[in-house]
Amino acid sequence: MSFMALTMLSCSEETMKQNDEISLTKNTVSTKKIAAEDCSTPALIGPADTSYNCFGLAFSLSETEEKKPMDNAEIYQAYIATGIFKEDNSNKATKVLYWNNLTDYQTGNYTAIDHAAIITDSGNTTVYSKQGLNALYKNCIGYYYLNTTKSYYRTYSLNVDLNKPVTAPIRGEVFSVSLQHDAHSLGVQYSWVYDTDNLQLISNDGITLTLKVKDNAVAKSYSITLNAKHQAGVVINGLSFPKTVTSSYSFVLASNTPPALTASFTGSSYVTKASMGSWSATVSGGTTPYQQYSWWIKRHEDPVSSYIQIGTGNPLYLFTRTSVKSTYYDLYFRVIDANNQSYSTTPQIIQSTGVLELFDM
After folding, report:
1. How many CB atoms lie within 10 A of CB 28?
2. What domain of life is recorded for the organism (predicted)?
3. Is the N-terminal amide bond of 315 cis, ω within 30° of 0?
4. Greatest C-alpha distance within the chain
5. Which of 59, 66, 265, 336 would you label with 220, given CA atoms 20 to 30 Å apart?
């Protein structure tokens, strides 16, 4: 009786009615039982069986080669609660959990899990699976598709999320990329792939890779990829079902040629005896550190006069002692970078009620 009840739960008559439609999306072969099958002697179904592929049909669940019975609570604690597997609806999914109760599915009530299975690809090829604590049999199952009108499922992938550098590495810099969740205990095999011509290996303990960007590294985009191969040691009926998922970190190494040095400034346009004028410059590009800031000024009414340096540093503060008449000045800012490259801004006209003098803060 136990066998029949479990079978009906997995592969119900309601599913039989839908087999024509479901077969189009799930499989191109017949879903009916083998006509000459002997139903008198139970025979355990295994993932290497090509006649049946019903989610929930098999004997036990384990990620490693060791097969041991696990109840649903153990499955959750071992694979989901640890973070080793995470919910993933992409083709990275390698594990699937089923509910026949919508409320429990929506609330993530894992005590109500009806089926647990490991799959190997987006085509839902079953490696092995189980239902509850009971073994199920392949004999005399009319249709092997899950009842899609009453079943709900979440798919999971091996968690290969990475800890990555906050900023892109530069030449000569040592940086690390590491796995957030280590699944070596499940027999997972990790391997790193990176550009050995431009990145020097400092250390690799399997889950943390430390590299140095070579001083002569080429300016381009780099990708460090982690390959995680699991279920590699699982052999059933002489067949193995390995699955590899990947994660990567990418960054762009800038050219050795720095961007052009440039600067601009903003500030007061009119200074009176009762006010203080201030101007602030913004510098970008070139090669840091910037070596020198300077401010230059001349009377606007005297076009043949020469600019004189009125201040250094940034920002600049000027004042006037008089309120006689409006006087106009041309003011510009100049910067020199670490490579002795210089940039001068376009002069701006400043109005004052008298001679402008430097206010030393």
Report:
1. 6
2. Bacteria
3. yes
4. 117
5. 336
